[in-house]
Amino acid sequence: MAGTQGQKGGATIYSVAERAGVSIATVSRVLQGSDKVSAKTRQRVMTAVEELRYMPLGAARSLAVRHHEAHGLLLPELSGPYYSELLMGFESRAAELGQSVVLMLAEGKDDVGRAVRSLATRVDGIALLASAAIPDSVPETLAGSKPVVVIAGEAKPDVEAITTENAASAKALTAHVLAHGRRRLVFAGDPDSGPDIRDRYAGFVAAHEDLRLTAAAPVRTDLRESAGAELADRVLAGELTTDALVCANDELALAVMKRLRQGGRTVPDDLAVVGWDDVMTARYVEPGLTTVRQPVRELGALAAERLHARITSADIVDETQVLPTQLVLRASCGCTPDPLA
Questions:
Q1: pTM of the model
Q2: Which intervals hold domain HTH lacI-type (predicted)?
Q3: Which domains does the chain have, with CATH numbers?
């Protein structure tokens, strides 16, 4: 078909139409979300778009001239302190670089891939958080068409990654709980939900292996407050037997502690509870929450900085950058309270 190479360095609407075996008008209707195209045809077009990594010409032109002066940020949702800290760090650094931020949430989107392709037409590059809510195909589809940075994920060709250290600190946290004499530890969080939770569970397992103990399988739960209450109810009902809960984030741990207290259990006397993130509330609850401090706001700022570097073709980094984390001991694990922690 004539014109398939008209867009230098990338696919055109013509090449998408040719690959899908449809007209360019049909491709246009599909990309605009029209309901006048059959599901079968829509699938053929979207498959061609993904295989060819097609980006509308207007978006490619805007990228070439730095027209948007905007960074895209894709998050699973905005509930909980982690996302707000990450967003504040990202927006603050982007503003310092003279860029605005266009935020998109995966929550509630029937087709995240299509929504992200639409976002890509309005920004110069996209940072996204590695999460089960965001398909792995999304950064791969964008790579080569738009600069991409993955937060708390893994680097791939044309996709830069930044993260915080997880496995070693999770091992140290778990080893500390085991040193208190606890032997029926349960890890609360789904290792399949993202590389960060996967590595925290790996650290949990490694600490057990060092003592020639067998780590329990993870209790797969999301990390929201409501999930913490449900987890505590399982403990109170005797359905889940444990003397220590190693929670994959503070939001889950704090909700567990509150519900256990309401149910007449005492932390850490009846069971220890530890978390991850070191949100502000962790130091003010009673008992104080033992956790791992990770620099979430700094992570967001670094994501904006690295994305801007890729957009401007300056100082491109291929390897994954890892920010350090720190074990913070308070009373919820059984330690003597430290008023300064």
A1: 0.77
A2: 11-65
A3: 66-164+296-323 (3.40.50.2300), 167-293 (3.40.50.2300)
Greater model confidence, 95 or 121: 95
Contact 87, 112 (CB under 8 A): no
- Which two structure tokens, joined as six digits, stand for 276? 């991850």
Average pLDDT value for the chain: 88
